[in-house]
Amino acid sequence: MSHTNAVPSPETARTPEEFVRLLRRLRAWSELTYRELEIRAQRHGLHLARSTTAAVLGRGALPRAGFVHAYVAACGLTPEPWLGARQRIAAASETRGADIPAVPAVPAQLPCDLADFTGREAHLTAIGEGLTGASGTTHGVVPVVAVSGRAGVGKTSLAVHAAHALTERFTDGRLFVDLRGASSAPAGPREVLVRFLRALGLPGPIAVPDAVEELGALYRTLSAHRDLLVVLDNAASERQIRPLLPGVGGPAVLVTSRHRLTSMGPSRSVELGPLSPDQGVAMLARIAGADRVAAERQAAADIVRLCGRCPLALRIAGARLACRRQWPLDRLADLLRDDRRRLDELAIGDLAVRERLEQEYAALPQEARRTFRLLGLLEAPCLPAGAAAALLDCPVGLAETRLEALVDASLLTAVPGEGTGATTTYRMPDLVRLYARERAGAEEAAAQCRSPAAQRPVS
Ligand SMILES: Nc1ncnc2c1ncn2[C@@H]1O[C@H](COP(=O)(O)OP(=O)(O)O)[C@@H](O)[C@H]1O
Ligand SMILES: [Mg+2]
To answer: Does residue 181 line the site of ligand 1, with CB under 6 A?
Structure first.
């Protein structure tokens, strides 16, 4: 060992961060690698895993006494003065409640952006205008932009892309949370508020109050007048979002949900539908290779159509082609042309169209599930309200109410009729219809077996 520098002394450390900094200096002084430290600790009969040393020295938290003992001994010094200093700092930290390292003042919680994000130019402009107040939000009111659309249409990708693009506008930070609205365990307000408060610099668990109202008030205080963007992804309902809204202008909120959040009165609603055919082909080209798409333009257009221009389905189709470079595009198109196999083919790794549809279906109320299944028995994708009344065996008004529940869940689209008194036509996207047909096959047949009297032809 060539000890060129003075031996670091633990006496000067006042905070956990300073203490860890001195431990780092001690290693530099000892000129030992993590591996050598581990071996030297073993010689003293002590345990000092390399990974633990790297982790402890990389954080600002006060290490355990056992670690300090083994580490200092391995460096060739007497541990006692270091253990004494550690004890002194631990006692001081407890009284201050500050033994958790300070979080950065500017939270940057957005997940990473897609390298191959495609299209959506108009939506990005609308979101930007809505969040920055360019669309005329009253001064002091928090702008809320809500993006809705069915599973896999690209809501999260769009929100994340838009939020990254606005980094320079929201210089006080970007908060992000997945509210798990489509799951059976959506995030509650306490869980999210505590996370947000920590990210905004509230130290440690000691200072966090119990009551959700108080947490909310603290959150509104800390977020007030800050240029902060709050992204609430995958919201189940307005009720879930309300406690997470800042109270006064400065911050802005971007929400995504499968539902249209009408009662909340967002400053701006952005309804996300399928990509345009050209954007679909462009997305496929970026994932599977521009040369392959250029060589088989018709097959590429067919794949985009058979995927319903849905980004999730296209991501899966593209990924399947990308890992089979030798496949002609038409081979995949052929597999997708078979209605009975299409949902099976649209799966790779942890992505599967059917699985997303299953989640949406499971989240529907019982009556809406039955309406959904009955629509799956139809051959045509479009259904005028009058025909829906016959199918559902109820008056037109009630049929429309039932179908609107599926529109709100983004499983149907409503096309208003033209002219006065014209009725609405409802359209079910092809992939959704294939799944509805599967459900009808599995559940309606079973229901009819159980109750033969209920059998009646559906026209
Ligand atoms: N504009 C886009 N460009 C490229 N890929 C996209 C785009 N939008 C969505 N995707 C891809 O589609 C899939 C589903 O998108 P996601 O944002 O998770 O949908 P949602 O949040 O609506 O369920 C993701 O794998 C994503 O990579
Ligand atoms: Mg999502």
So the answer is: no
pLDDT per residue as tens digits for the range 286-340: 999 999 999 999 999 999 999 999 999 999 999 999 999 999 999 999 999 999 9
Gap from CA of 403 to ligand 2 centroid (Å)? 24
Residues 187 and 244 in one domain: yes
Which residue, of 238, 271, 304, is where some domain finishes? 271
Same domain, 134 and 213: yes
**Residue 114 DSSP code:** P
Residue 174 DSSP label: E
Write out the residue range of the structural domain in which residue 90 sits.
Answer: 10-96
120 lines ligand 1 (CB under 6 A): yes
Q: Residue 323 corresponds to which tokens in the numbers above? A: 């890992």
pLDDT in tens, 106-142: 889 999 999 999 999 999 999 999 998 766 666 778 9
Give the nearest ligand 1 atom to 157 CA. Answer: 17
- Measured CA to CA, the distance from residue 453 to residue 457 in angstroms comes to 12
Buried b (16+ CB within 10 A) or exposed e, 193-208: bbbbbbbbebbeeeeb
Q: Single out the residue in 306, 336, 354 at which a domain terminates.
A: 354
266 and 281 assigned to the same domain: no
Residues linked to residue 230 through DSSP beta bridges, in sequence order: 175, 253
The one-letter amino acid code at 203 reads: P
Question: Given the CA of residue 316, which atom of ligand 1 is nearest to it?
Answer: 25
Do 281 and 267 share a structural domain? no
The best mutation among 312, 359, 360 to test binding of ligand 1, ranked by most ligand atoms within 8 Å of the C-beta, falls on: 312
Read off the tokens for 326: 């030798």
pLDDT, one tens digit per residue, over 235-260 is 998 999 999 999 988 899 999 998 88
Q: Is residue 112 part of a domain?
A: no
pLDDT in tens, 162-193: 999 999 888 889 999 999 988 878 999 999 99
Spacing, Cα 32 to ligand 2 middle (Å)? 47
**Ligand 1 close to Cβ of residue 319 (< 6 A):** no
The per-residue pLDDT for range 15-25, each reduced to its tens digit, is 888 898 899 88
> 156, 147 in Cβ contact below 8 A?
no
Q: 332 alpha carbon to ligand 1 midpoint, in Å?
A: 20
Residue 109 lies in a domain: no
Please indicate, yes or no, if residue 114 is contained in any of the structural domains: no
- Residues 260 and 182 grouped into a single domain: yes
